[in-house]
Design brief:
The chain is built from no helices and five strands. Strands 1, 2, 3, 4 and 5 form a five-stranded antiparallel sheet that branches. Belongs to the UPF0434 family. InterPro entries: Trm112-like (IPR005651).
Length: 62
């Protein structure tokens, strides 16, 4: 089941209450302000602070 992109207009980061971005490739919602990503399970965003994963920095491996 795919994530309904219309939900991006109403969902917010549970930590800072800011906007979230969709990462379609990894099926997760990203909060750039807090540097965390929330999983999307079967099309449903899991917006629980204890399920947030730190964002991987693109400079890893340099």
């Amino acid at each position: 089941m795919a994530f309904d992109k219309k939900l991006l207009e109403i969902v917010a980061c549970p930590i800072c209450k800011g906007k979230l971005e969709l990462d379609d490739n990894k099926q997760q919602l990203i909060c750039r302000f807090d540097g965390v990503a929330y999983p999307i399970d079967d099309g449903i965003p899991v917006l629980l602070e204890n399920r947030a994963q730190p964002l991987e920095t693109e400079s890893q491996g340099e």
